[in-house]
Amino acid sequence: MLKSFISYLTHEKRYSTHTIISYTGDIKQFIDYIEEKYSIYQIDKVNHYMIRSWLVHMMQNKISAKSINRKFSSLRTYFLFMLREGKISTNPTKKVIPPKIGKRLPSIIQKNEIERLLDDLVFAENFSGYRDKIIITILYNTGIRKAELINLTDDDIDFYAKTVKVLGKGNKERIIPMTEDMIKELKMYLFIRNKEFEKQDFKYTVVTDKGNKMYPKFVYNIVKKYLSLVSSSEKRGPHILRHSIATHLADADVDLNAIKTMLGHSNLSATQIYTHNSVEKLKKAYLRAHPKAK
Predict the structure, then answer these.
(1) Are residue 202 and residue 268 in the same domain, yes or no?
(2) What is the mean pLDDT of residues 267-286?
(3) Cβ(233)–Cβ(227) below 8 Å
(4) For a tag on the chain, would you pick the N or C end, based on fewer CB atoms within 10 A?
(5) Distance between alpha carbon 5 and the CA centroid of its chain, in Å?
(6) Are the C-beta atoms of 172 and 115 separated by less than 8 Å?
(7) Cα 214 from chain centroid?
(8) Could you report the per-residue pLDDT of 108-140, keeping only the tens digit for each?
């Protein structure tokens, strides 16, 4: 049944390979647990007590609440699939409440650090230099995810409308506006790319040094390399640029619904976390400046 579930995630839900691997690993961990602890070898024999026991077992092994919630979410999706397929009559996860996750403010790169990186830092005057800069530029200006950047095509870019079309999670499309600076940088990059690989037809916009499709580690290494030059933040991967532009827009009082649409969030609560950074800044400024605050 697990093979059918994987096929469902792949072809119907159209989840990424990384997500499917995570789901599969989580479910296999649960199956191993109930086989060892309860000698249960049929998934339809599982009840909510066994699932609660699994969650407690993970907490006792110091697994974070965030990881436990992710694993529980994988299991819940699996049981919903089993219910849909008629393999079980009730969903045992309905009676289980996973541990609460404490809200943690996302790490960001400061606006002056981003400006220093994109305006003052000198990138190499060759294809790799232009490519590296456009990676940073697109990720920050649009807030798109690493996987969305990797799969971006030339057809997704509309210079006339000044927009870029992004295919996000759940195969949902969204349209994101481009700034004049980004348009300028993107046109220059495409000119250099096409000159570097004259006889090559490109499916994807941003490519490796050999003109091939990028891969996650490739993007991560480039972003980390350049952010290390301007920021002391411990987190320097591509996702921090997504957090950064969302926070900077929230600081500038951009409507949260607009930020939600840009990021491709399914609900507003996921976007509201970016307003907390502004509140925290206000608190610190208040404590520093107010005569009665000390």
Answers:
(1) yes
(2) 66
(3) yes
(4) C
(5) 23
(6) no
(7) 17
(8) 888 999 999 998 888 999 999 999 999 999 999
User: What's the half-sphere exposure (Cβ side, CA atoms, 13 Å) at 33?
Assistant: 19
What predicted TM-score, i.e. pTM, was given to this entire model? 0.65
Average model confidence (pLDDT) across the chain: 88
Location of structure tokens 């049929």: 42
| One-letter amino acid of 165 | K
Q: Is residue 192 part of a domain?
A: yes
Give residue for tokens 């971006």: 152
Name residues whose C-beta falls within 8 Å of residue 111's C-beta, 6 or more positions apart in sequence. 244, 248
Does 267 lie in the same domain as 128? yes
The predicted-structure confidence for 210-263, as pLDDT tens digits, reads as follows: 999 999 999 999 999 999 999 877 788 999 999 999 989 988 888 888 999 999
**30: Cβ contacts below 8 Å, ≥ 6 apart:** 51, 54, 71, 75
CATH code assigned at 30 = 1.10.150.130
Specify whether 121 is located in the same domain as 234. yes
Q: Judge whether 260 lies within some domain.
A: yes
137 and 90 in one domain? no
Let me know whether 163 and 224 are in one domain.
yes
CATH code, 199: 1.10.443.10
* Cα–Cα distance measured from residue 279 to residue 45, given in angstroms and rounded to the nearest whole number: 49
Tell whether 137 and 252 lie within a shared domain: yes
| Residue 292 is assigned to a structural domain of this protein | no
DSSP string, 142-199: H---HHHHHT--GGGEETTTTEEEEE-GGG-EEEEE--HHHHHHHHHHHHHHHHHTTT
| Domain total of the chain | 2
Task: Dump pLDDT digits (tens) for 6-37.
Answer: 999 998 888 888 899 999 999 999 999 999 99
Q: Which domain holds residue 8?
A: 2-95
